Amino acid sequence: MGTLNRLHLIRQVDLFTLRLFLSAIEEQQIGLAAIRENIAASTATKRIQVLENIAGVKLLERTPKGVVPSPAGAILARHARMIFDSLDDMRTEFASLTEGVQGELRIVSARSVIVPFLARELGEFSREYPLVDLVVHEVENADIVQEVARGEADLGVFASAYGLDLDGVEVTPYRRDRIVAVVPLDHPLSGQTSVTIRDLVPENLIAPRALIGALRAAAQRIGEDYAPKHVLRSGGSAISLVHAGLGVTVQPECLVGHEWTGRVAVLELAEPWAARRIHLATARGREFSPATKVLIEQLLTRPIDEDQLEPDR
């Protein structure tokens, strides 16, 4: 390995790539890290490859359970964490300059949005604005917009869905991921790269509560009825039943964690509605509080990988 050129490193490596590299280590999959950082998997892979080219050595090693840092990658990860720790310290010192941003900020969202997207970003916001009292409620996706419209929450973060009533709220694109199919490893469908709703309806399709409406509508479009035998709120519980051989399920890809690698088969769901779009909702005609305005600006800071579409109505 040649000597690492310090100036070249400073010029070529950006903080976002370092953050993506740390996410890949934490998620143990570049694809999940890409979802977490809201870029395409191909873009994430290319960024990691460029980082390895600059370092002149492999930084990630591929194993049956996912990616792990190489010895050189572990060194880079340690120093990258030191960089981000320093940035956190700087934000703390800046807190005295942001004392005007304070008060209670009420947020409503669904678990499938909080876990992969919101939790980390709300943590960063809380450290930067310690005088803001964040109040986060987990509610069903269909109820999020209504609570915001009634003034019961300052900000809602929801997944767009067919037929969702958006009257009374302003909607801003935030993130996107996709719905995937999860089947047992020994299932006849496991050898396919993609499936459709026509493939899944004849199976014991375990329904996430938030997707029952979408599944029924998709089945009706192909002339089938869908009456789920199992309905679960938790994606992890649904995948556990799949692993036990009780059926198949569909889930947001960001919720299929690396712990399921090699235990279930994850397939592309080749349906137009499988593109999952996440949006921010605020009450129409109501002025933002300073805290709400700053949080929205922070949530929208991360780069959007492709043009966001209008929410489905």
UniProtKB/TrEMBL annotation:
UniProt xrefs under InterPro entries: HTH-type_LysR_regulators, LysR_HTH_N, LysR_subst-bd, WH-like_DNA-bd_sf, WH_DNA-bd_sf
Keywords carried by this UniProt record: DNA-binding, Transcription, Transcription regulation
Transmembrane feature ranges: none
GO MF annotation, one: DNA-binding transcription factor activity
A single GO cellular-component term on record: cytosol
Superkingdom, natural source: Bacteria
Sequence ranges assigned to domain HTH lysR-type in this UniProt record: 18-70
Family that this chain belongs to: Belongs to the LysR transcriptional regulatory family.
Alphabetical list of PANTHER family matching this protein: HTH-TYPE TRANSCRIPTIONAL REGULATOR YBHD (PTHR30419), LYSR FAMILY TRANSCRIPTIONAL REGULATOR (PTHR30419:SF2)
Protein name: DNA-binding transcriptional LysR family regulator
